[in-house]
Structures are given as C-alpha cells and as structure tokens.
Amino acid sequence: MKNIKNMENLNYYLNCYLLILNKSHQTFINPYLKENGLSYQQYELILHIYMDEGSIQGNIASACGTDKCGASRALRILEDKELIIKKIDETNRRSYKIFLTEKGRDIVENIIEKERYWEDSICQKMDIKKEKLFKILNKACMGSIDLTE
C-alpha cells in the first residue's frame, strides 16, 4: 500500500480502486480489532448484528457473504467472548436469534467511532460531503447488483 504514492497517472478499472480502498480500510481498522480480540470476519458479523439485532444466524451469514459453517464458528467465538448471546427463535426452534451483550455493544460502538473518522478523512480528502458520496456508492452498488441478477 505504501508504495502507491501517486495514483493520478494510473488507469485502473473501478474494481481495482475499490480493492485498494478496501485493503486500506482493513489496514486502518485492524489495529482496533486486534485491540478488542476480533478478526475482520468476526467484526463484519458483530457489526451486522449491531445494525439488525435479533437476526437469525443464517441471515447474518448470508448478509455478510460468509458460509454458514464459517459464520457459525465465528459466532461461537463471539459468544465465548461474551459479546453476543443466542436465543432460540420461537417461530422456528431450530434457529437462533442473535443479540449483542452490553460488552459487545460497547466494543462495536467504539470501533464505529473509528469507522466514522476514516470515512470523514476520506471525504475530506475528496472534498465531498459524506451523504453525497454514500448516494453515489449506493447507486453504484444497486447498478452492480442489477447486473448480477
């Protein structure tokens, strides 16, 4: 990453820029995850739970693009660390709804502060309002999803 100093002369495809942005984000956020004993995959899962508490395990895995076995292992680790709790779904006794513990919520909210700092820094460098950038990215995501369906 550090050897890319000037990207103005690079002629990449959109995907290459997105990969660089994603890799840069992971490099930025990983120290905060390590500090809290989380892997990036566990963070994606716990962040989804934060945004949609009470989700069913299978839906969480699917939303995070993770296979059910991998998600199950990661969720078990999060449960062992007392960051989440599983409750049997009353409508389907074979499913579990997942909730954050207070400890889990505190960790996620702390990391979200770091996420906001990263986003604000990126937007400041781009001289664009975050809301405008998010609208553009949302359109790009929806267009991409349309292409794959």
Q: End-to-end distance, in Å? A: 33 Å
* Proportion of beta-strand residues: 5-15%
Percent in helix? 55-70%
What's the CATH topology label? Answer: Arc Repressor Mutant, subunit A
Order of helix and strand elements from N to C terminus: HHHHEEHH
Radius of gyration: 18 Å
How is the topology of this model organized?
Elements lengths: L13 H22 L4 H12 L5 H7 L4 H13 L3 E6 L2 E9 L1 H25 L3 H19 L1
Antiparallel strand pairs: 1-2
Helix pairs in contact: 1-5, 2-4, 3-4
Could you characterize what this model shows?
- The structure is a single chain.
- The protein is mostly helical and about 150 residues long.
- It has a single domain, classed as Orthogonal Bundle (Arc Repressor Mutant, subunit A).
- Helix content is about 65%, strand content about 10%.
- It has a two-stranded antiparallel ribbon.
- Helix 3 crosses helix 4.
- It is globular.
- The two termini are about 35 Å apart.
- The relative contact order is 0.10.
- The model has no long low-confidence stretch (mean pLDDT about 90).
